Each structure stands twice: as C-alpha cells, then as structure tokens.
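Is this the right way to post structure tokens for a design question? Let me know if I should format differently. Anyway, here goes:
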C-alpha cells in the first residue's frame, strides 16, 4: 500500500546545495548581455559552458566568412585595377615613343620645336596652358599631346584606386586574422573544459551527440510541397550531405558550416547566394511565420542572424549546427535557437 505521509522538507545542507546550483545556472545564463540564452536552461556546469563556447564560435565564424568574402572581392578588384593600370601604362609608353620619334626627327633636322621642348621638360600637365603662347603647335600635334595627358591622368587615377583597395584589403586581412584567432580560442577553451570531465562524462556527451546525428536519418519530414523548383533542387543537394561534419568556414562538398551548407546547396541549383547567414537573411522573400514555411525555404536563427538552415518540413530544420556535430535534421523547437524568419528563394 502506498504511503500518504508528507515528504520531509529538505535539510538546510541540501537546500544550500540547491540554492548554490541555481545561482550558478543564473550566472551562466547571464554571461553575455548581447547573446541569446543558453539552448537548454536545465543544462549546468561544463556542458553548458561548452555549448556556449560552440555557439560563440559559430557566431564568430559567420563574421569570419563575411570578412573572407570581402577580402576575396577586394583581391579581384585589385587584380582588375592593376591589369587596367598595366594596359594604360602600355598605351602611355606607346604615345611617349611616338612623341619621342617626332622630337628626334625635329632635332636631326636642325632644332626641336619649342612646344615639344616644353612637353618633354618634365611638366607635361602645364603644357597645354602654356603652349598657346608659343603659337607654333599644330592641331594634330596638340591632339596627340592631349591624348597623352588624358591617359596619364587616367593611369594616375587607376593607381590611386588600386592603392586604396590594397589598403582596404590589408585591414580586412587583419580582421580575418582576428576572427580566426577568436574562433580557435573558443574551440580550444571548449576542449580544455571537456578535458576536465571524467571519461564517463565525456562518453555520455559523445553518446548524446551521436544519438542526435543518428536520429537525423529517421526523421519524418511530412508531405509538404517545396517552396519552388530551385529551392527543391537546393534542398535535395543539402539532403545528400547529411552526415558530413561541421567545420568552421567550410563550404563543401565534404564539410560545412551553417551558411556554407546553404550557399553550396543553392550553387548546385545554379543560384548564387551570399556567403554569410546575415546576408542570406536579406535575399529572396521574407516568410515571417513558421507555419508558412515550405521545404527548401531558408530558416534564419538567433537574434544576431548568425545561423541558417533549410526548412525540411514537419517542424524540422536541416542544418550544420555546431562544432563536433554533423549535417543533420533537427526539431526547430528543440534546436535551442530562436527562429527569426524564413527566406524563400523563387
């Protein structure tokens, strides 16, 4: 027969442990005022800190991806500007040679035209203003010299633009180095914390992660229609990557971070997306309600828009979630990241 006696109230010693544990959980949850809350408030201690470090590493990864995308664009611009400058320098050299040939001919015939003397004096920019006073320069010669001066100015402008882009590239490369150090520092700290756990605790965490990865292959996706033909093709490409590892700054085909997976998948559907989750959040058509999402829509997560995946149907997200995980399906409600909005690529 079941007992109906009231349970004994906790002893002061037990109550103190409960209070201390609650205080520790509160302290962990308020470590960063600007960040989202911990995925699961019930998690405590090392596990919660590791989860937080992984989240911060993924946020820093998206900033790294943005800086790398900018650096790649700047390198292309610098190369194009330098090529253009080289062509303009070649054109300028050809004109200089042409003018030099005329000057040499005049010199052999008994004297150098004062207009050419003035031009070749080292201050060609002031030539046209002063040449009219000589009243000895022909229209054809003036046109050649004007062409020379125009190309010289264009070359100088091209070189200034290239120098500005190179300076911008230098500062962007510094940012890349800073973001890389930040990411690697977060991951090192996470590994250090994991190493403080017992072997049994580490095995339990690894088993939990393994279960989450294996459960991904048994998820029920429902029968919802895809958002569009291109979204369906991109989603199918992403589905083919289930089981591939999360690696920061990776964009396929055998490892991914979150925006690396979505941008790679849409490339397979001949659609070019920006590299970062923040930029992907602002393409296509916004879908504000979870209930209006269709398979193949992008899902933007976290208040800083630092995570993105595919809506997979039946309340599931297909994504590359974090370091140590694989590309997998997961319940949106249980992902621990707040949903911001969806993006439909037509």
């Amino acid at each position: 027969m079941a007992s109906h006696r009231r349970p004994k109230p906790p002893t002061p010693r037990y109550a103190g442990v409960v209070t201390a544990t609650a205080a520790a959980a509160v302290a962990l949850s308020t470590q960063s005022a600007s960040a989202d809350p911990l995925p699961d408030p019930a998690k405590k201690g090392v596990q919660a800190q590791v989860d937080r470090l992984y989240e911060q590493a993924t946020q820093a990864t998206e900033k790294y991806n943005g800086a790398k995308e900018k650096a790649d664009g700047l390198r292309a611009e610098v190369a194009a500007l330098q090529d253009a400058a080289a062509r303009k320098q070649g054109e300028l050299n050809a004109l200089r040679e042409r003018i030099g040939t005329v000057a040499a001919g005049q010199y052999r015939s008994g004297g150098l035209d004062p207009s050419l003397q003035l031009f070749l004096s080292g201050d060609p920019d002031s030539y046209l203003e002063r040449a009219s006073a000589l009243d000895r320069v022909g229209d054809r010669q003036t046109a050649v010299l004007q062409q020379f001066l125009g190309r010289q100015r264009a070359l100088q402008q091209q070189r200034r633009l290239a120098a500005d882009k190179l300076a911008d590239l230098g500062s962007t490369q510094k940012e890349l180095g800073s973001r890389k150090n930040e990411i690697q520092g977060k991951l090192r700290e996470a590994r250090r914390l994991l190493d403080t756990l017992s072997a049994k605790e580490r095995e339990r965490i690894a088993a939990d992660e393994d279960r989450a990865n294996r459960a991904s292959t048994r998820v029920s996706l429902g029968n919802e229609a895809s958002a569009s033909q291109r979204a369906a093709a991109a989603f199918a490409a992403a589905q083919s990557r289930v089981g591939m590892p999360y690696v920061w700054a990776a964009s396929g085909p055998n490892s991914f971070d979150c925006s690396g997976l979505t941008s790679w998948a849409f490339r397979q559907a001949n659609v070019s997306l920006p590299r970062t989750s923040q930029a992907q959040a602002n393409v296509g058509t916004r879908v504000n309600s979870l209930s209006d999402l269709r398979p193949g829509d992008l899902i933007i997560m976290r208040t800083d828009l630092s995570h993105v995946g595919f809506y997979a149907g039946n309340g599931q997200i297909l994504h590359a979630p974090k370091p140590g995980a694989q590309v997998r399906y997961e319940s949106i409600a249980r992902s621990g990241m707040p949903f911001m909005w969806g993006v439909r690529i037509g």
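Format looks fine. Someone answered above. Worth noting: Residues 41 and 332 are 17 Å apart (CA to CA). The longest strand covers residues 307-313.
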